[in-house]
């Protein structure tokens, strides 16, 4: 009896060990052999990992002088996957192959032209890629999506973009509007060495432009205004402090705007709204500097009009500067972290101003 009970337990243990977990997910690797139903040969593809954080694997080969084959492998997270080709590493102006398998099992792959950051500028069935007829497909296998297509080109663009969509959100007919991606990366691919690296175009110049303008127009100008309004009891320290802070802000801000002009020229990006706001802020800043040299004496009848102009222009400058910093973060696709960080700093400055305003009101 004891022996048969032990035998039964042993048999059940073997069965439990032999059954794979229900939620197991097979991963792809360059050592894996592809067994896909695609309309071109996949036996001699080069393979490399292109986006490790999302486990994206790219396989490609130059089949002939003007024919390239691509297979992008990515985890199936109930979202679209995309591979784009860009002349400058930016999404705007690029063309992308986007594929998804909807909840009813319908597989769809389309070319999109990313004409701008707004959804109505992301155009389906358009783009600069010459896709070979009947060569594109997307299939699901072992919990992974395989996006396959062929291009007629002598040399694909080396700046390659990858993105993954929001979970459970798919483009639908008739418009097939593409929702904003959940994450994306810009890379540089050497097709001959098979090496790929994440790369942000002109990253140093972009950082310089953003940090200089955020620090100057978006922070120092506000701090200088707070000093001028709430610390006049310490005369003339408040005046010199205000002048020094605003002068530093203006010089740094001018440098940041120059970086912006250079960046726009190099990226060939459409940032007309951001640029227009920046020029408007710069003009207000120049007027504020010139107003300092035309400042009437305290006993002059014109002093109250000068004060009204100086205060009003300063407040308008601060409001537009804050708005343009947030807009710049959006254009730079820096994500929620930068928005939250800058928003917290602005909230602290607003709170400090509110407290100082109450104290000044009570004192008066």
How would you describe what is shown here?
α2 runs parallel beside α6, α3 runs antiparallel to α4 and α4 packs antiparallel against α5. The chain has about 375 residues and is an alpha+beta fold. The strands form two sheets. It has a seven-stranded antiparallel beta sheet, with no helix packed on it. A five-stranded antiparallel beta sheet has the order 1-2-3-9-8, with no helix packed on it. The N and C termini lie far apart (about 95 Å). The N terminus is likely disordered. The chain has six helices and twelve strands. The chain is elongated, with a radius of gyration of 29 Å. The longest helix is centred in the last third of the chain and has 31 residues. A hairpin with an 8-residue loop joins β4 and β5.
Topology:
Blueprint: H1 2-18, E1 46-51, E2 56-64, E3 67-75, E4 81-86, E5 95-101, E6 107-114, E7 122-124, E8 137-141, E9 144-152, E10 159-164, E11 183-190, E12 195-198, H2 203-230, H3 237-267, H4 272-293, H5 303-331, H6 336-363
Antiparallel strand pairs: 1-2, 2-3, 3-9, 4-5, 4-10, 5-6, 6-7, 8-9, 10-11, 11-12
- The fraction of residues in strands falls at 15-25%
Main sheet record: 7 strands, antiparallel
Helix coverage percent of residues? 40-55%
Q: What order do the SSEs take from the amino end to the carboxyl end, as H and E?
A: HEEEEEEEEEEEEHHHHH
Q: How many angstroms does the end-to-end distance come to?
A: 97 Å
Poorly predicted spans: 1-25
Number of helices: 6
Structural class: alpha+beta
Strand tally, please? Answer: 12
Radius of gyration: 29 Å
Biggest sheet strand order reads: 7-6-5-4-10-11-12
Mean pLDDT: 87
Given the C-alpha coordinates, what overall shape results? elongated
């Amino acid at each position: 009896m004891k022996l048969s009970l032990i035998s039964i337990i042993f048999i059940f243990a073997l069965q439990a060990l032999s059954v794979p977990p229900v939620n197991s997910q097979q991963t792809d690797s360059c050592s894996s052999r592809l067994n896909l139903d695609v309309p071109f040969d996949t036996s001699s593809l080069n393979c490399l990992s292109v986006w490790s954080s999302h486990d994206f694997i790219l396989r490609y080969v130059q089949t002939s002088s003007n024919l390239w084959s691509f297979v992008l492998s990515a985890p199936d997270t109930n979202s679209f996957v995309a591979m784009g080709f860009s002349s400058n590493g930016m999404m705007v102006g690029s063309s992308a192959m986007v594929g998804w398998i909807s909840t009813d099992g319908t597989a769809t792959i389309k070319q999109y032209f990313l004409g701008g950051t707004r959804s109505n500028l992301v155009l389906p069935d358009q783009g600069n890629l010459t896709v070979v007829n009947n060569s594109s497909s997307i299939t699901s296998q072992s919990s992974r999506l395989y996006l396959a297509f062929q291009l007629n080109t002598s040399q694909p663009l080396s700046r390659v973009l990858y993105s993954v969509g929001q979970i459970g959100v798919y483009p639908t007919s008739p418009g097939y509007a593409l929702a904003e991606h959940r994450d994306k990366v810009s890379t540089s691919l050497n097709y001959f060495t098979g090496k790929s690296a994440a790369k942000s175009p002109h990253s140093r110049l972009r950082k310089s432009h953003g940090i200089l303008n955020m620090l100057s127009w978006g922070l120092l100008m506000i701090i200088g205004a707070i000093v001028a309004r709430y610390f006049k009891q310490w005369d003339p320290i408040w005046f010199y402090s205000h002048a020094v802070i605003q002068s530093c802000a203006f010089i740094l801000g001018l440098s940041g705007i120059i970086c912006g002009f250079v960046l726009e020229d190099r990226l060939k990006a459409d940032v007309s709204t951001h640029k227009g706001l920046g020029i408007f802020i710069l003009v207000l800043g120049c007027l504020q500097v010139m107003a300092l040299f035309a400042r009437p004496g305290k006993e002059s009848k014109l002093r109250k009009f000068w004060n009204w102009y100086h205060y009003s222009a300063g407040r308008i400058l601060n409001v537009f500067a804050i708005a343009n910093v947030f807009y710049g973060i959006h254009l730079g696709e820096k994500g929620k972290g930068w928005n939250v960080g800058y928003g917290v700093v602005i909230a602290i400055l607003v709170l400090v101003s509110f407290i100082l305003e109450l104290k000044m009101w009570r004192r008066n």
